[in-house]
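Quick log. Single chain, no ligands specified.
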Amino acid sequence: MSDTIAAIATARGPSAIGILRLSGEETTAILDRVFRPLNGRPMSAQTRRSMVLGQLLDSSGETLDHALCVLFSEGGSYTGEVSAEIHTHGSPVVLNAGLQALFAAGARQAEGGEFTRRAFLNGRLDLLQAEAVVDLIDAETSEAARHAVAQLSGTLSRAVEGVYEDLLSLISRFYAVVDYPDEDIADLEKGESLDTLRRSRVRLEELLASFSRGQVIKNGVPTVLLGKPNVGKSSLLNALLGYERAIVTDIAGTTRDTVEEKLPLGRVLLRLTDTAGLRDSDDTVEMLGVERSRAAAAKASLALLVLDGSAPMDEEDEEAAALSESARHTVAVVNKSDLPCCLDLDALRRRFDMVVPISAKEGSGIKGLCEILEGLYSDAPAAAGEMLTNARQAAAVERALRAVEAAEESLLNDMTPDVVLTETEQAMEALNELTGKHVRDDLVEAIFSRFCVGK
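-> predicted structure:
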């Protein structure tokens, strides 16, 4: 990491402000070549962590923009290295020319996530906090952002470290007794050791149980709208979104492919998929759409079964109903409530989680439907930051949990201490992988490949 990296840290496209970012041992020397402070002193002589007004120079030494620059000392920056930011006007032309000037002065293009990777390698962040950075950038709801920033602040790391410290205390006292038999060190009681293992097991079980909720908050709920042609699926999608997203006509089979949109509802995000109406058809394109509908239904956690309340259920309705029941939650949405009802609503209520009459055409019942959908995911939120949000984290916690369970069982069955210790040390190793204390290089590469350039 001896070279100095540079990147545009703000989104591409015109904006009020754009930021160029630098990190590495040549940062100060590069700034002295490309930035001319208006106070007459070079950046190397400026106060650290203070914004300095000056001129950004292009690679030929001509003034490119009036800008602000801030320099951070080693150990006091995001990466832990000497680093800097140059705040320019947000013209893509200015930012690209400024970046080329930094390259000409000795920097190289930063790779995706390289700034955060350096922060991790320099001990400024652990792996859980580093993953929270990209979660925060990708957050699509305020709830997702709240949990990501708490995880970035170390909430989850501290919870994991608490379990690790308990296990470390357990094995360190054992080794102390074995290695220094002449010292006055109290032997570990079996009950005390069991209490430590049980406490660790319960905490790991709680963390693992948080994964499903963490996935909902981070990724949203895969939601599918199912039903036969012309029951009002596309009309319902438009009503939920509040604008005309899908084409609506009286012609059966208008929707021939899946249509995907996002719907924020309070703390949860629904990833809506409107599907082709389920029916047999000689139209090759329509049948491809029907097959995609079935595939979307198989992946959904929430199914909105749309029925025409003005007509009795038929075989096509039953096929849609059967598909919807594979989801964790199924809500029967009885459309066309503005017309006389021909469905047995009581029978539907006995079959499905909830039955909600609406009129997508008139907009009646939509607000109530949204409240019901939000209520399905309104369980008491976990403390901010104390949820697992990706499969890597869940897998590491599960390995730690299984090892602790094995250690507890070995102790209960009066196995030799070395068996208990082996299982306990395996649990600690899994926790070290979780936080990044001990982690393979290829895993680090995979994690930071998710990051954008400039972060």
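The mean pLDDT is 85.
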